[in-house]
Amino acid sequence: MSAPHQYHQPNAPDDGDSDLELDLEELDPLASSSNSNTPPGTRRSKDHRKPYHELGTGIPLRNLRVGRLRGNRRMRGSQDTEEEDLRALIEDDDRANRSSGGSYGRSGDDDVPLLPSQYARRRPQPPPSTLSRIGTTLRLPSFRPTAVRLEDDHGELEAQEEHDPSSQRTVAVGQAQTAQFPANAVSNAKYTPWSFLPRTLYNEFSFFINMYFLLVALSQIIKPLRIGYLSTYIAPLAFVISITLGKEALDDIARRRRDAEANSEGYTVLRFEENSVGNGVSPGKSAHRKKKPKRGKLGARRLSDIEREEQSLSTTSGLPTASYWETVKPSKNLKVGDVVRLSKDQRVPADMVILKSYSNENNPAEVESKISGSSSTLVPEDKPSEAEDFPAVKPNASSASSGEAFIRTDQLDGETDWKLRLTSPLTQSLNVGEFTRLRVVAGKPDKKVNEFYGTIELLPKAKQEYDPHIDRNGEEPSVSAGTTEETKSAPLNIDNTVWANTVIASSGSVLAVVVYTGPQTRQALSTSASRSKTGLLEYEINNLTKFLCVFTLSLSFILVALARFREIDGRPWYVSMMRFLILFSTIVPVGLRVNLDLGKSVYAWFIEHDKEIPGTVVRTSTIPEDLGRIEYLLSDKTGTLTQNEMEMKKIHVGTVSYANEAMDEVSSYVRQSFTTPSGEAPLLVTPSSTYATPLASATRTRREIGSRVRDVVLALALCHNVTPTTEEENGQSVTTYQASSPDEIAIVRWTEHVGLRLLQRDRESMTLQSCDSGNNVVRVRILNVFPFTSEGKRMGIVVRFYQGPESSATDDNGEIWFYQKGADTVMTSIVASNDWLDEETANMAREGLRTLVVGRKKMSAQVYAEFSAKHAQASLALHNRDNAVADVVNEYLEHDLELLGVTGVEDKLQKDVKPSLELLRNAGIKIWMLTGDKVETARCVAVSSKLVARGQYVHTIAKMKRKELAHDSLDFLRGKLDACLLIDGESLALMLTHYREQFISIAVQLPAVVACRCSPTQKADVAKLIREYTKKRVCCIGDGGNDVSMIQAADVGVGIVGKEGRQASLAADFSIEQFCYLVKLLVWHGRNSYKRSAKLSQFVIHRGLIISICQTVYSIASKFEPNALYKDWLLVGYSTVYTMAPVFSLVLDRDVDESVANRYPELYAELKTGRSLSYKSFFIWVLVSIYQGSMIQGLSQLLVGVGSDGSLSFKHMVSVSFTVLILNELVMVAMEVTTWHWIMVASIVGTAGIYAGSVPFLGGTYYDLSFLGTMGFWWKGAVVAAISLVPPYAGKILGRTLRPPSYRKVRGV
């Protein structure tokens, strides 16, 4: 007897169970394939299908009764529709997709089982017959196309079309997108493999000196112009270019490695796969990999009523739309639409919209194991949704309902306050398995970090109809699945977003969908492209070489003119002139770039190996000399000048002020106020509670002070937006605080320090605990919260106090109080009149403290009821809602507050910031502070860091909207150039738009400028504007991602390795670990680098010029014939082995010690005049070169004779002049050294030895060795050397005596 078929057999309502008596296997021979062992990948091709007329014999009875077609029929074309319909009735999908009842579990197939498990009635099943098993095994599965999945096994499906960045985008959450978006990769590299050579070669040959030598080298291809070996001219240029290109390549490779490190950071991403009820697909397992269900657990199911089956076919409410599992992706592989799980202290890798947030207690480790573990087990059919939910959130969990998260944005906008971010209620309450129904509609990529408008839509849940041709109403269905729901939508704004390079600050986890990636993120759009930087010294030398070229051209023309333009050796005059140009090419020294580039590498080595500034990295080794020429320093505030760590330093309660050790007295008052007398039941404290004092100190004054202290501490403990969280650290429970402002956290920590701890806080209530007794002493119900805004500059809260014993406390008829704290500028008009507030806030501001004024007001129940009704009404206004709410608050709350006290909070400065800024100011550097923080905060830090001198007037320009006001402010500043300017971003934008030239011309003259509320783009614009207007060197220093644009726009960018990341340091030219390291970087290393390079470049020019003068004198003596004096090896050896080491050793010279450089920062100030390498110093060296070259060659020719080329007398003359030339250079190097180094001595002595050792090898071709051993050679050489060296040295001594340089004055020598 054949075994009955194992599937859900519906009981037809018309004839009861009559069909059950039939041999089901005979009617449906295909159904037993559910237990087949056929591999899931095996398919039957269309070529082997049964003929159309035979299809009707194999239709399963179940399909005939229900009249159902497979869902994926809709995905095929319209041709052969009837045949395909019949095939769909009889053919199976992949065996692994078929449930026990023959229902299918793939996306696009049946979305629900034929029978839900809760309605299933189990019946004992006999084993299948042998014939059935054989038939099942032999039967091949169909070759029907499988349903479309959200993601393939190897990742997302690639979109074919690239998205237009100028249009809005619709993001399908958790799915592949219909358009392509840019990759989410960070790149600080300057070059690509294809652009490296073209760009670097263009940069190199844009320098006149390189182009000049390229033309000289190419001229040697022309035979009449060829002089000596071709390699003599080609090799030096190739060597110079190779060195420079190699340095650029190494720098860029290092940048790419750092980028790769950031791009490879792993993030947890949710992968989705569309579900079908009953398919048993668990997260992480596709339908292809589904385990074979065990018989008995997934056996045949029956239903008593066919309507139930129809109902189950038309809804998927029992199971989420999709299954999902976790996978880890590197940051660069994140794509638009990916759902990413972010945890505390994790950097946000792209611009995202928050979908769901979980608190720490709702996101334990076991939840993760549940997620990952579920992928290897079947989802229980009776509880399909539990395994899908992520994580197992308690129904009443506060975080699940609130959907809050805090982020740190100081890497983006420079603001230290934590920002509160909220999830949309539409997504917070949504099962994660339904996320694939979400669509995020967002605008085009924008650089505005504080603005976002979008919409999130929840599509209806897809339902499959009972019949593909006729729905229940007898109408033909539409193309899409039938639905009864409507699309739900909710607005999105900045509060629902987290931008790239912000950091999750709150505990727990956040699920967010990627909306913008890579170059389209806010951070990237606010960042300017990196550029190749060239030092000021290079431009100056480039100008000098142009003069040398003109000098060479003039000299060549003069020699040809003196020869009366006649033909020489059959060559026309212009060919002779070209040959002279080539002979004199050493005047423009090709080795200068090599020496300078190698010198830069030495300076970089010194900087990176300085033990006093550990961790310093030179990322751009082409501009170390510019460190010695800085005139404007643009600094970020947060994390650069300050540590972003707040500490409560002072509190004033009207009659007495407490600070430092006096805080212990505050603690004693708090202890007395919140401690219940022994023997009495503990009662909750309210503001009206009697202040109890010990008898010993029961004076009226102390009682009043104690009462005021209690009131102000209670107000500070209640008036905030701080939430306490408990975390596990090293096995211990640690309480941390989360808030949007570090000031509030500092104040709450202070209240805990003095004895009143914030124990619990949610949206509805707050509990305070006594630190001494451990009892809960204050409980309040939060009625209203008015958060801090940059416009309002204050924060308020309305609370109702619980009263009575702690165990049975009630807030019925409880006292209602309004507490408020804010900036003194706004609170002065809100609190009641007093005579001490202005004076005390001014005192605290002078100390650099951030002041907050605290006040309170008691409200009756009736007044509060009126306020609440009007407030609710104003909150619903469609127009001017903010103003309407503000009017109500002002009418009922914000007037005549009782002034409780003033607090002073200090933002801790970085180590040694005050002396560092003072030293830099004395070094002649004008310092600007550019920050994204608030005006008050910027002012406080400017005062506390001594950026603004004591008593200096600070002119504030804020919220300027009219051009007329801007003009007035500029007129005022023009007459007061000793003031400090404090300007906000809005006013700065107005100035730069309408009065760009006037503003910058005045601002650059001011001793200090503080610009706050600056966007990253504005910071970069200011840096560019100063550079373009003043033509001076600008240095920018910062630590955050919001500083990258400014750093890259500067001549010298310095990045600090901050707590929140290394993006600024990676993009900078120099990376340091503390702000105070900047002093040594500029005053010591920068000064040395510039002075050494200036001396080195002038000496290299001298070295090339003197040999050309020798050539000129010889050409005049040889009747203006363009023949070489020093040929081949002598010419190459002169600029390499015979002089290079001594000349290059000048990079080790220093004029003063480090202690002297720090003691006299004025030594740095004089560098900005550029006297070390000026036209004056250059022409002095030119005159010295002309004198020495003329004496050396002229006296050699007079004492020895000229002779014809190659003759014995010519060799005698060359041996004398070349030997003296080498000796002259070695002695000149020794004359220029200020502080001797052993390497200098070794290089001079060693080079002299090398020359002496090479002389025997120069015999025959260049020298006459017999002449070198005669007395004539030695005395003639000595006379020539003495005449060439003594006068320049005497002039140097005389100049030092009459006008000693500054370094000799401070050294006392």
Short description:
The chain has 1309 residues and is an alpha+beta fold. It is built from 41 helices and 38 strands.
What would you note in describing this structure?
46% of the residues are buried. Helices cover 38% and strands 16% of the residues. The strands form 8 sheets. It has a 9-stranded mixed sheet with strand order 19-38-37-36-20-32-35-34-33, with helices on both faces. It has a 9-stranded antiparallel sheet with strand order 22-21-31-30-29-28-27-26-25. With 1309 residues, it is of the alpha+beta class. It contains 41 helices and 38 strands.
Shape: elongated
Low-confidence stretches: 1-126, 129-160, 277-316, 363-401, 464-483
How does the major sheet shape up?
9 strands, mixed
C-alpha end-to-end distance = 120 Å
Number of helices: 41
The number of distinct β-strands equals: 38
Family: Belongs to the cation transport ATPase (P-type) (TC 3.A.3) family. Type IV subfamily.
GO biological process, one term: phospholipid translocation
GO cellular component, one term: trans-Golgi network
Membrane topology: Multi-pass membrane protein
Please render the helix and strand layout as text.
Blueprint: E1 9-10, H1 24-27, H2 61-66, H3 81-90, E2 121-122, H4 130-138, E3 161-162, E4 169-172, E5 179-180, H5 196-205, H6 208-219, H7 231-263, E6 266-274, E7 301-303, H8 306-313, E8 322-330, E9 339-343, E10 351-358, H9 365-374, H10 398-402, E11 404-408, E12 418-422, H11 425-428, E13 438-442, E14 454-458, E15 488-492, E16 497-498, E17 503-504, E18 509-516, H12 522-525, H13 536-562, H14 573-583, H15 591-608, E19 617-618, E20 630-635, E21 642-652, E22 657-659, H16 663-673, H17 700-718, E23 723-729, E24 732-738, H18 742-753, E25 756-761, E26 765-770, E27 776-786, E28 794-801, E29 816-822, H19 824-827, H20 837-846, E30 850-859, H21 861-875, H22 881-892, E31 898-909, H23 913-922, E32 926-930, H24 935-944, E33 954-957, H25 963-974, E34 980-984, H26 985-994, H27 996-1003, E35 1008-1012, H28 1016-1030, E36 1033-1038, H29 1044-1049, E37 1052-1056, H30 1063-1067, E38 1070-1072, H31 1077-1117, H32 1129-1135, H33 1140-1144, H34 1154-1159, H35 1162-1165, H36 1175-1200, H37 1208-1232, H38 1238-1258, H39 1265-1268, H40 1271-1298, H41 1302-1307
Parallel strand pairs: 1-7, 3-5, 20-32, 20-36, 32-35, 33-34, 34-35, 36-37, 37-38
Antiparallel strand pairs: 2-7, 4-13, 6-8, 6-9, 9-18, 10-16, 10-18, 11-12, 11-17, 13-14, 14-15, 19-38, 21-22, 21-31, 23-24, 25-26, 26-27, 27-28, 28-29, 29-30, 30-31
